[in-house]
Every structure is written in C-alpha cells, then in structure tokens.
Amino acid sequence: MKEIDELIEISQFYGRDNRFVIAGGGNTSYKNNEKIWVKASGASLATITEDGFAILDRAMLNPMSEKEYSKDVFERERQVKDDLSAATITKGKRPSVETSMHNVIDYPFVVHLHPTAVNGLLCAVNAESELKRLFGDKALFVEYTDPGYVLFNKVNDKLEEYRSKHKEEAQVIWLQNHGIFVAAKTIEEIKSIYDEIIAKLEGAINEQLPTGDVDVPENVVEIIPAIRMMLSDKELKTLRIRNNKLISYFSESEENQKDIIKPFTPDAIVYCKSNYIFLNGKDAGVILEESKKNIPEFTARFGYQPKVLLIKGIGLVAVGDNAKQCDILLDVYEDAMKVAYLS
To answer: Do residues 142 and 173 touch, judged by C-beta distance below 8 A?
Structure first.
C-alpha cells in the first residue's frame, strides 16, 4: 500500500535524525476513513517497518472524544487503554498512548516529534508569547498537561476552537514542555513544514550551543570505579561518561545547574527519572565523600538509584544495566541540557 510505504519513509527519515528524535520519542500515523496506522509502543521510528504499526478501527476510536470516563485518574486511564485495545485490529500490538490525538487531526499523515529546537522554545518561561511572535497569532499552543486522556481532551477542545475561529484545520500543534504535531495530506508537505519551522527557530537563536570536546581528567580512574561500587550493592551497574563544552557549562557551575535540576519533558522523566545528583567537590577526595553521603540519601528518599550524575571536572555520568541503556540516558539528558540552554 503506497501510503504505508510513505508512512514508513517519513518515520525513518525523522527517526534517524537526532535533531528530531532521541531514544524512543515521537510517533507517526496515517489514516483513511476506516482505519488508522499508528506507531506501536516499543517500535523505533529509525528502523520501523510495516510490522511496527498498530492498526485501529476508527469507527471504534471516534466515540472516545465524547465518552464520559471515570474521574479517578487510574481508573480513567485503564478505561481508555481498554477502549484503545478494543479498537485495535492488530491484536498484540499496543498503540501509542497518543493515538487518540492522531485520530482527531483531520489530515491523513501526522508526525509527532520532540525536536530540540522546538522544545527550546516550548520549555521557555515565555513560550506562548514567543511562539506567537515568531509564528503569528494563529499558532495553536496547548498549555502543559500530563500525557494521557486529559491531554487528548485538551488538544481536542483546542482543535475545535481553532476550526470555529479560523474555518480551517490546524496543521501544527505546539505542546508546552512536550513537542509538536505536524499534519498534512502528503509526506512532502510534512517535510516542508518541519523545514520551515526549524529554519525559523534556528534563525531566532541568539546564542549558539557550546560545541567541542573536553578532555576527561586522569582522576576519573579513581572516582568512577568507586562510585560504581557504591551503586552496585544489589547488582553490578554500568557507568558511562560524556563530556563536552555544553556539559561543562552545567557541570562547572552550580548556578547553571539550577536550570537542569528538574526534567522539562515526558521523555526525560521516562528515561532519566525526575531527580539527579550533582557533585561539585573540588577534588577526588571530596567528590567521593559527597558520593558516599548523597547516593544512599538519594535512594532512600526517592526509592530508586540515580540514573544521572553530573560531576564537576568529569562531566555527565549515566548509570544503567548495560552500555546501550547508558548511551540512551546520556543522549536524553544531554538533549535536556540543550533545551535548557536554548530556553
């Protein structure tokens, strides 16, 4: 089917570009009058094939926008998942939690991504006013809402308001602290819209991101193995280090660290959790003493071990079960640093 081939093409196109997709972020869809093909949970946009899409019956999806669900948040989300599951034709494939939003946007192709440049705007304090300044008063901005049915309802209401006011369908939806939906009749138009958005955002940046590598100091061989053992009381953990001028901008300044002390986006929460450890000791001895104190306190307070540590003089350290997981953590948290710097 030609349209599904095009859906695979556009998914892989953006999935392989880390300016647009980090780790498993983003989802894509195509729909006709009867069915919607949407990225299944767990599928990677970079390598997705036809098998990576869940297919749903739109006749069963459409009533969800009018249905009254439980006011209890956990019961409501269970009911919504049950309805999504019932509408799923490809049993065994769990559709994206954002399937309902894809369904109510009245264009065949929808590409939802979390580009760094976009979130640099959407995570800013003055996000809405700056968005309107750059893209005009018609830009459809949705205030931050936790992902799930409540976000879908808010987006659906905003779309209805937009249709009523402008007598047309919105092609771009900006979600605060989240990302962007772009919709069109063709994948070529999707690409064109994204190109225009990124070009305008990059042109509006006053100060470019710091670039260039930073050498890892010799005392890393004293510090990192010791911290690894502190984190491996139940099972052996893998630690990986990354340092560059952007990371140093934050690791060498406690003032700058205030900008990354909490996550901006759902992606950061999913992969890196919501809390991190910052070690600002002046030498190896002080850093290790801080680690002995801070790591157990962190674990006792939050109920999980830190996945991210930022260490003065060393850089960004990811804590995971294997090297691949650590690389994802490094990518996601470094992207959060980029967003913080641009915001």
So the answer is: yes
Nearest CA-CA partner of 316 in 301, 338, 285, 299: 338
Measured between alpha carbons, how far is residue 309 from residues 11, 52, 286, 299, 336 in Å? 32, 34, 15, 13, 14
CATH 3.30.420.10 holds for 220-342: no
Q: Where in the chain is the domain with CATH 3.40.225.10?
A: 2-203, 220-342
- This prediction has a pTM of 0.91
User: In this predicted model, what pLDDT tens digit does every residue of 253-308 receive, in sequence order?
Assistant: 999 999 999 998 888 999 999 999 999 999 999 999 999 999 999 999 999 999 99
In terms of Cα–Cα distance, which of 242, 231, 250 is closest to 299? 231
56 backbone dihedrals φ, ψ, rounded to 5° = -125, 150
A 10 A CB-CB count for 138 gives: 12
Q: How many CB atoms lie within 10 A of CB 72?
A: 10
**Percent over 70 (pLDDT), the chain:** 100
Short-list 39, 60, 73, CA closest to 150: 73
d(CA 67, CA 44): 31
Q: How many other C-beta atoms lie within 10 A of the C-beta of residue 158?
A: 17
Indicate the fold that domain 2-203 takes in CATH. Answer: L-fuculose-1-phosphate Aldolase (3.40.225)
Q: How far is CA 6 from CA 9, 185, 309, 313, in A?
A: 5, 11, 41, 47
